[in-house]
Design goal:
alpha+beta, four-stranded antiparallel β-sheet, 4 strands
């Protein structure tokens, strides 16, 4: 084992701990889970199986993805192709941790409760069945529309006539509402009372108010007497 490969294996062992299995000097396995700490449920898992080539990392090692939990080989064929492509892109450098990270990301995205997934599939299936059901209502044809239109007009005619008959003109409303006459009379009476107010009638009140004013406050100003003229 080359020094570079040996250092990589030691680093992987320290990172993955119990999930790392050093089978031989050239063969290692890493068990990958969405939640390796177990704080949340793991519904799927994959074992990354690596057999190092003689001149690794200058060539791609033998890579295999082994379904470990909730998966079949067919489920991860596409993922394995992506892992092999990523290995090709990283020739010349330590790549196992990079490949493990790619797999871990896929596991995180696909860690779905199978029971919940079945419920979603059943719901989708029921919606598809509802969409496929034939239309069982009455088809709208030109003939059916004309029949409905004629019936609708006949049913609404009496209502329109009655509404028009019950409608009163402005003059009729005025003649029937006696409160309008009363309000006009009251307005005229108030107008007459207002017209009877004269200067003479309010002069005593003004003099009473003037007697209560402290005229010393206006010592610096000239206060002219106001003459009240009697209304003729």
């Amino acid at each position: 084992m080359s020094e570079e490969k040996e250092m990589e294996v030691e680093a992987l062992s320290a990172i993955y701990m119990d999930h790392f299995n050093n089978i031989s000097s050239n063969h290692v396995q890493i068990t990958l889970l969405p939640n390796p700490g177990g704080d949340e449920p793991n519904f799927i898992g994959i074992i990354l199986d690596i057999i190092f080539s003689v001149d690794y990392p200058n060539s791609v090692p033998k890579i295999d993805l082994i379904p470990n939990l909730g998966l079949e080989k067919v489920d991860i064929l596409e993922l394995q192709g992506k892992v092999l492509q990523e290995a090709e892109n990283n020739i010349g450098m330590s790549m196992i941790f990079i490949l493990a990270g790619l797999i871990k990301e896929w596991l995180d995205e696909n860690n779905i409760d199978p029971d919940l997934e079945e419920e979603v599939e059943e719901s989708s299936s029921e919606e598809a069945e509802d969409d496929d059901k034939p239309f069982d209502g009455i088809p709208v044809t030109e003939e059916a529309f004309l029949i409905w239109r004629k019936k609708f007009i006949e049913e609404t005619k009496p209502f329109k006539k009655e509404k028009q008959l019950n409608k009163l003109t402005g003059r009729q409303l005025f003649e029937q509402d006696t409160s309008l006459n009363a309000s006009d009379s009251k307005f005229m009476e108030e107008g007459e009372e207002a017209s009877n107010i004269t200067v003479a009638s309010i002069k005593p009140k003004l003099e009473e108010v003037a007697a209560q004013v402290d005229w010393s406050l206006f010592a610096d100003e000239e206060i002219k007497d106001v003459d009240y003229e009697e209304d003729e």
